C-alpha cells in the first residue's frame, strides 16, 4: 500500500495542545497540522506555530520532573504524561568550576543530558514525536539514525508497545548498535553513510502510511523537543537566560530549537529578554556549517563525513542555513575541531568534572576551548555547554588512548613502585 508522504489512515482531529498550524520557514506559508515536513508552497521546512495563552512559572514548577512540565509549550496532548513514555528531561545543570579553571574562564555550566533514559538528549525529541505520532494515528515508530536516535526510538517504542523500525549506517559504533538491538525492534544496518540512510527513510516514509519516521514525516513536532533543553537551562539558572551557550551541530535542529526555546520564554515573560550568544560546534571531519560560517556564506555545501564523532556526522545538514541565521543574529560563532581535539575534550571533561561524554560532547568541550583561545567566547561571561550523550556509547573513540597506568604483580611493593610512593 502506498500513500502521499505524511498521510495516515486516521480521520481523527489531533490534540496537540497549544499547536495550531504549521508554517514554512522561508516564506511563512501556513497550513493545518499534519504529518508533513516540507511546504508544498515554497519547499522549505515546516515549523510548528502556537497559541500559547497564559503560561506561568508556578504552573511549570508544579509540573512533573520531566519535559512534560513544559507541555503547554509543546505540540502534545494535555494528558501526555498519563500515556506510557520514557519520561525524559530534568537532567542536571552543574556549575563546572574545575573545568572553568582549566579553560581559564570565570564560570562554566554543564547541561548534562547523559542522565536521560537512553543516555542522550534524543529521548526528549522522540518523546514529543511519539506523542504527536499517536495523535496522527501512526502505530510504528521509525527513524534513520547516527546512533543516539536509534537508541531513543527503540526504547520509546518498546515502552509504548509499538513496533520500531530503525535504519543505521553499518559502520555505527558497536555500543550504539547493541543498545538499540536490545529493545528487540527491527534494526536494519545499511551499507552507506547517514545521508544514504536518510534518503532511504524519506523514500519509505512515502510508502508506509502507518510508519512515523520521527525525523522525517513528523519532524516538525520531533524537533520541538529540543526546546526543553533551553527551558530547563533557563529554569535551572533561576529563571534567566545564559550569556553564552555552546551547542553541537549535526542536522542543526537542536541549535535552532534552543534559540527558539529561549525566545519563547522571553516572549511569554517567563524570563527577561536579555541578550545571549549561541555558538556552534562541529568536528573538522564533518564541518559544512562551520565552513560556511567561516566563509561568510548563507548556504551550506554538503560534505562526505570522516570523523570519530559519528553522532554529528551529517554531511548535508537540513537546518544548516538556519543555524547560520541564529548564530549571526545572536553574535555567536561556529568552530570545528580535529578528532584528536575531540578525544582531549572528552578527557578534559572527565578529569575535571567526572562526566564521561561521548564524542559529540568532546566536540562541544574542545570547540569551547578553541573559541575561548581565539577570543570569540568571552571569558568573563558565563558559558553553558550542552553535553548531549554518554561516553559509554563511544568507547571505541578512547579505548586505544587510555588504560591502566601500569600492570604489576599482586604485591603491595609492586603497587607502591608503580605509584611512586
From TrEMBL:
Alphabetized UniProt keyword annotations: Lyase, Pyridoxal phosphate
Molecular functions per Gene Ontology: L-serine ammonia-lyase activity; threonine deaminase activity; threonine synthase activity
Domain Tryptophan synthase beta chain-like PALP positions: 88-389
Name of the protein this chain belongs to: Threonine synthase
Family that this chain belongs to: Belongs to the threonine synthase family.
Residues modified to N6-(pyridoxal phosphate)lysine: 122
An individual GO BP term: threonine biosynthetic process
NCBIfam families membership: thrC (TIGR00260)
Cofactor: pyridoxal 5'-phosphate
EC id: 4.2.3.1
Amino acid at each position: 500500500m502506498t500513500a502521499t508522504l505524511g498521510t495516515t489512515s486516521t480521520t481523527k482531529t489531533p490534540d496537540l495542545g497549544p499547536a495550531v498550524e504549521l508554517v514554512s520557514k522561508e516564506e511563512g506559508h501556513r497550513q493545518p497540522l499534519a504529518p508533513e515536513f516540507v511546504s508544498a508552497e515554497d519547499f522549505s521546512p515546516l515549523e510548528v506555530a502556537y497559541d500559547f495563552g497564559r503560561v506561568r512559572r508556578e504552573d511549570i514548577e508544579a509540573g512533573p520532573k520531566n519535559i512534560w512540565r513544559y507541555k503547554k509549550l509543546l505540540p502534545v496532548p494535555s494528558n501526555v504524561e498519563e500515556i506510557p513514555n520514557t519520561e525524559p528531561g530534568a537532567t542536571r545543570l552543574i556549575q563546572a568550576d574545575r573545568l572553568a579553571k582549566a579553560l581559564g574562564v570565570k564560570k562554566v555550566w554543564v547541561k548534562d543530558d547523559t542522565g536521560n533514559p537512553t543516555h542522550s538528549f534524543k529521548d526528549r525529541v522522540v518523546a514529543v514525536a511519539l506523542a504527536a505520532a499517536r495523535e496522527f494515528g501512526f502505530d510504528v515508530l521509525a527513524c534513520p539514525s547516527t546512533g543516539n536516535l536509534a537508541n531513543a526510538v527503540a526504547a520509546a517504542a518498546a515502552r509504548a508497545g509499538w513496533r520500531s523500525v530503525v535504519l543505521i549506517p553499518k559502520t555505527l559504533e558497536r555500543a550504539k548498535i547493541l543498545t538499540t538491538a536490545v529493545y528487540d525492534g527491527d534494526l536494519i544496518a545499511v551499507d552507506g553513510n547517514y545521508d544514504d540512510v536518510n534518503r532511504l527513510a524519506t523514500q519509505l516514509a512515502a510508502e508506509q502510511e502507518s510508519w512515523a519516521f520521527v525525523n522525517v514525516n513528523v519532524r516538525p513536532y520531533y524537533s520541538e523537543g529540543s526546546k526543553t533543553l533551553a527551558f530547563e537551562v533557563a529554569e535551572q539558572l533561576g529563571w534567566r537566560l545564559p550569556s553564552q551557550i555552546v551547542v553541537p551541530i549535526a542536522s542543526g535542529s537542536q541549535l535552532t530549537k534552543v534559540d527558539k526555546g529561549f525566545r519563547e520564554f522571553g516572549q511569554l515573560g517567563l524570563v527577561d529578554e536579555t541578550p545571549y550568544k549561541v555558538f556552534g560546534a562541529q568536528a573538522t571531519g564533518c564541518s559544512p556549517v562551520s565552513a560556511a560560517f567561516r566563509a561568510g556564506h548563507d548556504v551550506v555545501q554538503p560534505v562526505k563525513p570522516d570523523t570519530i564523532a559519528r553522532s554529528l556526522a551529517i554531511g548535508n545538514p537540513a537546518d544548516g542555513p538556519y543555524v547560520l541565521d541564529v548564530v549571526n543574529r545572536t553574535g555567536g560563532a561556529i568552530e570545528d575541531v580535529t578528532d584528536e581535539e575531540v578525544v582531549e575534550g572528552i578527557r578534559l571533561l572527565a578529569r575535571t568534572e567526572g562526566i564521561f561524554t561521548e564524542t559529540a560532547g568532546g566536540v562541544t568541550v574542545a570547540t569551547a576551548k578553541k573559541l575561548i583561545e581565539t577570543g570569540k567566547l568571552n571569558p568573563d561571561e558565563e558559558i553553558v555547554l550542552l553535553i548531549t550523550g554518554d561516553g559509554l556509547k563511544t568507547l571505541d573513540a578512547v579505548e586505544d588512548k587510555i588504560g591502566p597506568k601500569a600492570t604489576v604483580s599482586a604485591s603491595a611493593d609492586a603497587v607502591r613502585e608503580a605509584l611512586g610512593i
